[in-house]
Amino acid sequence: GAGVSQTPSNKVTEKGKYVELRCDPISGHTALYWYRQSLGQGPEFLIYFQGTGAADDSGLPNDRFFAVRPEGSVSTLKIQRTERGDSAVYLCASSLNRARSSYEQYFGPGTRLTVT
Amino acid sequence: AQSVTQPDIHITVSEGASLELRCNYSYGATPYLFWYVQSPGQGLQLLLKYFSGDTLVQGIKGFEAEFKRSQSSFNLRKPSVHWSDAAEYFCAVGANDYKLSFGAGTTVTVRA
């Protein structure tokens, strides 16, 4: 079946602009995660959704970052007033929401964000 | 909070040779442990996972990993590497909150 998809694959924006990154999870996966991967680093957790609600947003770096999942499927990560330090690959993952299955996270190819 | 250390940033191995990638974790309880592989331009792919039970776990693509509680380690091994194994490998630990904490990764280069 189809895996996790993310659009766009690449996004170049100017400092101060607003961007939206989209994630379409695997069908039937109720849990969705956003991670950020900076150059030379492993992914870092940003936010976790169970269904439509953000169950844990402790990884969001500041209030310029916000994510939604209004219908419990597609999610959008929104970044306001982008800064050069926001440049990274943003990864989305999804999983079933059942005990250990929640840890078996399937990742999308990521969106590479470059802020100039 | 949990954390993961991958001591080797880059490993070069000859095709057909064995490979071992090191992973050490820090977590107060029994962790859930994972290895992922990331090829250029690709997403992370789960190679194998450990939750409990047998400490030697088998994964896809001929990889295996061994959980050693006394050493807080979860090293990844493959007996004979193929050129297609060239990629970046990430070890991750999961606590009780469904978040994964990743190491910084080890890049594997395979020479002919």
Summarize the structure in short.
The complex is a heterodimer of chains A (116) and B (112). By secondary structure, chain A is mainly beta.
3D structure, described in words:
- The complex is a heterodimer of chains A (116) and B (112).
- Chain A is mostly beta strands.
- Chain A has strands at residues 5-7, 10-13, 19-24, 31-37, 44-50, 53-56, 65-68, 75-79, 88-95, 106-107, 111-115.
- In chain A, the strands form two sheets. In chain A, strands 2, 4, 5, 6, 9, 10 and 11 form a seven-stranded mixed beta sheet that branches. In chain A, strands 1-3-8-7 form a four-stranded antiparallel beta sheet, with no helix packed on it.
- In chain A, a hairpin with a 2-residue loop joins strand 5 and strand 6 (53-56).
- The relative contact order of chain A is 0.32.
- The mean pLDDT of chain A is 93.
- By secondary structure, chain B is mainly β.
- Chain B has no helices and twelve strands.
- In chain B, the strands form three sheets. In chain B, strands 2, 5, 6, 10, 11 and 12 form a six-stranded mixed beta sheet that branches.
- Chain B is globular, with a radius of gyration of 13 Å.
- The N and C termini of chain B lie far apart (41 Å).
- Chains A and B meet through strand 4, strand 5, strand 9 and strand 10 of A and strand 5, strand 6, strand 10 and strand 11 of B.
What fraction strand of chain B? over 45%
Overall outline of chain A: globular
Alpha-carbon distance between the two ends of chain B: 41 Å
Q: How far apart are the termini of chain A?
A: 37 Å
Number of helices of chain A: 0
Helix content percent band of chain B: under 10%
Uncertain runs of chain A: none
Largest interface: A-B, 28 and 24 residues
Q: Give the number of DSSP strands of chain B.
A: 12
Mean pLDDT of chain B: 93
**Could you list the spans of chain B in which at least 5 consecutive residues all have pLDDT below 50?**
none
**SSE order of chain A, one letter for each helix or strand:** EEEEEEEEEEE
What is the assembly state of the chains in this entry? heterodimer
In terms of structural class, how would the helical and strand content of chain A be classed?
mainly beta
> How much β-strand is present in the residues of chain A?
over 45%
The gross shape of chain B turns out to be globular
Q: Tell how many strands the DSSP assignment of chain A holds.
A: 11
Largest sheet of chain B: 6 strands, mixed
